[in-house]
Specification:
Helix content: under 10%
Oligomer: single chain
């Protein structure tokens, strides 16, 4: 093969391209396990495109009122309790946005996978997409477990409790212990959000294919009146009600390959 030194042949060493392939293969495999607040930044493909990001947090660390250095509590209050992220309830309705700012996404085509636990009728967990900062617009996908529906919304800022509903999928059953994967791609009126219940892998194959599953459980295609076309962070959050707590576990996020 062109570029192989004669010494490689005599010693029966694999050519450089094969050694590089094996090294890349080993690097790719390290994406599969997750570690607490341990960002992974991995290049996908070639051709001069951006290096896409993939990161995860299993929250397995000492209980603390702070989520950790990789997280920004833009609204509300979150804590680490019993190796999970607890959305702290203040006894009244409040907005919560926790952005994973330890690693930025390279694009606005993003994904999040997470487990919901201990849901009550007064709490509504959310997945945050295209977050810039606490005062900028973002998308939030709310899971209304007590009303069996999921809604795609535009929040004007992190504390915005009168957010704009773009589209609702109803009925959509939400229960404690559910695992969801959400992707977003496109901009303007071509933005599409897809939701998988119990996705078969920690990261999607593409924005429309999660580990071979090309049939999402919900798809949002309604044109946003005021699209959010920027924002390189993703996260978690939701609304707390008069009682109960939302608990998140096993968070994955990054750019859609």
């Amino acid at each position: 093969r062109a570029g192989r030194a004669p010494a490689d042949v005599g010693l029966h060493r694999p050519p450089p391209w094969r050694r590089l392939y094996r090294n890349h293969h080993r690097q790719t495999e390290t994406m599969r396990p997750f570690r607490a607040a341990s960002p992974l930044v991995v290049g996908f493909g070639s051709g001069g495109g951006p290096t896409l990001s993939a990161f995860s947090d299993d929250f397995n660390r000492t209980s603390n009122a702070s989520l950790g250095a990789n997280w920004t509590e833009a609204a509300g209050d979150g804590s680490i309790v019993s190796n999970t992220l607890l959305q702290v309830n203040t006894g009244s309705y409040a907005e919560n946005v926790y952005a994973y700012t330890g690693t930025a996404c390279a694009t606005v085509n993003q994904y999040v996978k997470v487990t919901f636990q201990f849901l009550s009728g007064a709490d509504y967990p959310a997945i945050i997409l295209r977050y810039t900062d606490a005062s900028s617009p973002m998308y939030a996908i709310f899971f209304f477990n007590s009303e069996d529906r999921v809604i795609w919304t535009r929040k004007a800022n992190a504390a915005d409790g009168s957010f704009t509903t773009i589209q609702t999928v109803d009925p959509f059953t939400v229960a404690s212990g559910d695992v969801y994967g959400v992707t977003i791609d496109g901009t303007g009126t071509s933005t599409v959000v897809r939701i998988w219940r119990t996705p078969p892998s920690n990261t999607p194959t593409s924005s429309s294919n999660w580990g071979g599953d090309t049939t999402p459980d919900a798809t949002f295609t309604t044109d946003p009146a005021s699209p959010v076309d920027t924002g390189n962070y993703v996260g978690l959050g939701g609304e707390t009600g008069s009682a109960g707590n939302v608990v998140f576990d096993n968070f994955f996020g990054g750019d859609c390959p």
